[in-house]
Amino acid sequence: MPADPPHPVNPGSASGSPARSAGSGPAVVPSGVLADAGELLRALAAPVRIAIVLQLRAADRCVHELVDELDVAQPLISQHLRVLKTAGVVQGERRGREVVYRLVDDHLAHIVVDAVAHVQEGK
Predict the structure, then answer these.
(1) Which of 49, 101, 109, 112 is most deeply buried (CB count within 10 A of its CB)?
(2) 26, 48, 86, 92, 123 from 98: Cα distances, Å
């Protein structure tokens, strides 16, 4: 089966500003990368998961701390953590009887923070 054709996008530069130069077209990103990015964004697309990422941005937390901070039932927190873990957003480390969760990559927290800021600016 042939691979999906690549799609043009205009990714940001390392400085965070758009990569635009006169005379050059947009960079081409393989479809697989775009599909993976879509899966990542779907994993972040729930209010409770956004709140979890914001909490973990501040500090590593165990499940009961997230339950207390977010006022959400423990089974629901665990379910959302499982989605985030499967997507590679968080990872857990057993410490005694508890599992402490942390963000795998701060870039993901920036996506969430920027999305929340964007919504707040519009209100």
Answers:
(1) 101
(2) 47, 21, 19, 9, 39
* Torsion sign (Cα): 12, 15, 16, 20: negative
Q: Token digits for 90? A: 């968080």
pLDDT tens for each residue of 80-112: 999 999 999 999 999 999 999 999 998 889 999
Residue written as token pair 């953590």:
81
Domains along the chain with CATH numbers: 32-121 (1.10.10.10)
pTM across the whole model: 0.77
CB count within 10 Å of CB 108 equals 21
